[in-house]
Specification:
mainly alpha, 6% strand
């Protein structure tokens, strides 16, 4: 424990000093655990019973317990900071039980007069890093996403409660793990069956191809040579035909009266043949 108040415990040597240390602890803005003070024999030797009860209240009690207690069990709380801290810790206890808290329940448990007071208290808890939460004004609920401060265990009953909580958590973990393992097995089985189906489908396709007779494959050298030869022959024949046609046309020009001269026609023939 590294809080400065805990370093003062060895200096307590009287009832007044012990009470003063407790009062400083319950009003300190950054101290939210009191089990160390409660179980300190040095402090308990000088504390009156009412202040021991007050430490237990701040360690694991609530505001409702304080206002509902008989007179004299606890010393009267008059310090505003101490009252605020007890209400903050009470809100933490409620948030540990349920992460969705109705405004009406919070206002009743914490003796708050209106939603503005509730908002102020919640914001103070958030800034003190006790909880993370959002106020849903439309639904009139407080939605707690995380509880960052725990309450102290002050007796054997608290230990039993903690064991019960941990037992429920462990059971939920076992159920979750079993569900995840079942999903993993189902996925594995589906994957194996899908692989078998694909192989079977490929076999059927191969059998059908064999039955129908597979066409010659692209890139076959024989087919490529045949195609090339046919293309060469076709292109050569068509080229000769074009030359003959042009030569005939040039002959017609020689015989035509509008041609310039026979010499020009012969030159044209020579150019075409070449």
């Amino acid at each position: 424990m590294d809080h400065a108040i805990f370093a003062l415990i060895p200096l307590v040597n009287s009832e007044r000093a012990a009470i003063d240390l407790v009062e400083r602890a319950i009003t300190a803005q950054d101290l939210f655990t009191f089990g160390y003070l409660l179980h300190s024999s040095q402090l308990r030797n000088y504390l009156p019973e009412s202040y021991k009860a007050l430490l237990r209240l701040f360690a694991n009690g609530t505001w409702k317990e304080y206002v509902g207690s008989a007179k004299g069990i606890y010393p009267e709380l008059t310090n505003t900071a101490a009252i605020l801290k007890l209400k903050q810790l009470s809100l933490v206890s409620l948030a540990c039980q349920n992460h969705i808290l109705e405004y009406s329940i919070l206002m009743d448990q914490l003796d708050l007069q209106n939603t503005r007071d509730l908002s102020t208290l919640v914001v103070s808890c958030i800034y003190a890093k006790m909880i993370t939460a959002t106020l849903d004004t439309k639904s009139q609920v407080l939605r707690v996403t995380a509880v960052l401060v725990g309450r102290d265990i002050v007796d054997e009953e608290g230990i039993v409660d903690l064991q019960n909580v941990l037992g429920k958590w462990a059971s939920q973990c076992e159920v979750t793990i079993a569900s995840l393992m079942q999903q993993i097995r189902s996925i594995q089985e589906y994957s194996i069956q899908e692989s078998r189906d694909v192989k079977e489908f490929n076999k059927e396709v191969e059998a059908i191809n064999k039955a129908l007779g597979a066409p010659s494959k692209k890139g076959d050298p024989a087919s490529l040579n045949i195609s090339s030869s046919e293309g060469a022959i076709g292109s050569s024949a068509s080229g000769d035909n074009m030359l003959n046609t042009l030569a005939e046309a040039m002959d017609m020009d020689e015989l035509s009266p509008v041609s310039d001269s026979s010499t020009t026609s012969k030159k044209r023939k020579q150019r075409i043949v070449s």
